[in-house]
Amino acid sequence: MQFTFVFESAEGQNLSYLLCFIPCPVWKKEDNEIINLHPENPHFRIGDIKALIHLEALEDCKNLCLIIHRVGHASNEDLENILSELDALGISYEIINL
Fold first, then answer.
1. Are 29 and 48 in contact (CB under 8 A)?
2. pLDDT tens digit sequence for 22-43
3. 16, 58, 86, 92: which could join 53 in a potential S-S bond, CB 3.0 to 4.6 Å?
4. Strands 2-7 and 25-29, bridge-based pairing
């Protein structure tokens, strides 16, 4: 799996980010790698969303659409950890499965 996070934006900004596992988790925006989270570990860790939020100044974004792509190296455990972190951060989300 891999995931696209589309944060709600009142200003019409492109707040879409791809979390892909190549094989370690990497945040991308518009095909540009913006964070290689932890090259030594191929799994999502709690705090990986927070790292993106701080880097991209997304602290005010409290709603997003999470698109799950069924291709890629992420596991169901990675998805469970993503949802746990979103809940802990108080971010509301809608899930779309592709």
1. no
2. 999 999 999 999 999 999 999 9
3. 58
4. unpaired
The whole-angstrom separation of Cα 53 and Cα 51 is 5
Confidence band of 16 (pLDDT split at 50, 70, 90): very high
Two structure tokens written together for 64: 């997003």
Q: What is the DSSP string of 19-87?
A: EEESSSEEEEETTEEEEE--TT--S--TTHHHHHHHHTT-TT--EEEEEEES-SS--HHHHHHHHHHHH
16 forms bridges with which residues in the sheet? 6
Greatest alpha-carbon pair distance for the chain in Å reads 37
